[in-house]
Sequence to fold (222 residues):
Amino acid sequence: QRALARADAERHEAELRLSVLAAQVEPHFLFNTLAGVRSAIATDPARASEMVDALVAYLRAAIPRLRADGRADTTLAGQVEIVRAYLALMAARLPRLRVRIDVPPTLAALPFPPLMLITLAENAIKHGVEPKIGPAEVSLTAALADDGRLAVTVADDGVGFGGGSGDTAGSGLGLLNLRQRLAQLHGSRASLELAARPAGGVAATIRVPVDAAHPPPGKGQP
Fold:
């Protein structure tokens, strides 16, 4: 029974990794980016160059980690770098997008489950930023919460629940996969919470227990 449970968990992990990898390199993602580059070449060569640089940086950050074995011994810093590169690419495509990342260096080496933050960042862009008219912001922040867990939040000031395309209320397949994976890794000690922001948009927070091998460097509320 233990072997079957382990095999089932490994299968689910492989499926999740595959689905996230496909989301990163699926044709419309690359086509939209390259179409933006082609358009900018004629009207704004500097921006076209910036988009190409951002795409290269994103692929360099994302592909090696997406090809990794997917185990939970990845660090917060590594996962943040994927999101940073992705949001830089989105900002090059959407000049109205502002990006803010606030992750204390003292938390960078803490273990954090792979392939989760990038999913939240993609949701923020797709469901929050793209449907919004005018300037928008996506932020990524991390802190130790009062309960001692590591809390990492991806927030946007976009159209909010029900205002964009697809599911934005937390029951989509991608978010369901994240919740199932968190439960497999940490049981009830981990959580994914989505909340509407008072000024508009959505904040998605993943909370995971801090590894005992890494003493808490200090507490703070995200």
In short: The longest helix spans residues 2-25.
